[in-house]
Amino acid sequence: MEAGVGEGLAERLAIYAALVLAANRRINLTGAKDGAAFAAHILDALTLRGDVRSPLIDVGSGNGLPGIPLAIAGAVRVVLLEPIKKRAGFLEEALAVLGLDGEVISRRAEEAGREPGLREAFATATARAVGSSPAVAELTVPFLALGGRALLQRGSLAESERNAVHDAALVLGAELVGERAIDGERRLLILEKRTPTGPRFPRRDGIPTKRPLCLS
Hints:
Blueprint: H1 7-23, H2 35-46, E1 56-59, H3 67-74, E2 78-81, H4 85-98, E3 102-105, H5 109-112, E4 122-127, H6 133-140, E5 144-154, H7 159-171, E6 174-181, E7 187-193, H8 207-210
Parallel strand pairs: 1-2, 1-4, 2-3, 4-5
Antiparallel strand pairs: 5-7, 6-7
């Protein structure tokens, strides 16, 4: 794929890509039309691999990005959280074929984030969710153990949104500890859990996206 991706890793990632593209004929998993197009998404996911510690939860996993490539590259245990049953079924198949240590949970993040076995149980949380940074923070931070990190890949980031996610992180018991350029205007935001998330969060289904914390 590129420098830094060894042959063995590239082979397993190619198997994953083939699984996605085959399943995409019957389930809406990706807009990528061929392996080369989907490979770009995989490489984007791998920009996080140096930041991932086990266990990892991938919120709103969809087609398995970035959770599955990160589990392959880092040999970490992964929980793929995906509320849509058909996509969850695909993810279960992919974990089995790839022999990965992990499981699929078909629940919404707002509900799963309150479950004792999942809440504050993970070292790393990722999400490719479409929505504001404060909304994604609310859907990921409750899953983190103290010292855990949420890795938020974002497009261009307005100063108002940066300020909002900074404040939202504090409300959720975390801190914005890093911001890294990925390419062009794209950014990686890193939130680190400092204190337990208050019982109010995450709010009920749909509210984090409709009414993002600290974003007017």
